[in-house]
Amino acid sequence: MGRDVLGLHGVGCSVMGRRRKLYDRIVGGQSDANIPFEQTVNMLKSLGFDERISGSHHIFTREEIEEAINLQNVGGECKPYQVKQMRTVLRKYNLRREL
Fold this sequence. Notes:
By secondary structure, this protein is α+β, with helices and mostly antiparallel strands. The chain has helices spanning 11-28, 37-46, 80-93; strands at residues 50-54, 57-62, 65-74, 77-78. A 4-stranded antiparallel β-sheet has the order 1-2-3-4.
């Protein structure tokens, strides 16, 4: 049959695929607007970043990465200037292979 009984075959792969697609969209730099906040948070967590929250700021750190990534949720999206800062970090450390 090829599918499991619950119809969940490949669910993990599709989540990874969405995270890679979002990563590529951020790193590609075509537009820093309309980047979904919650999906970005989930992507960063899957890359091993720890999140702490200070007011409206979600600050992501990872032991071997010098820079912190700071994001704010505005209407369900990340602020464009913060997406640009995040892109710099993601490019510097080439983290896509970890997704």
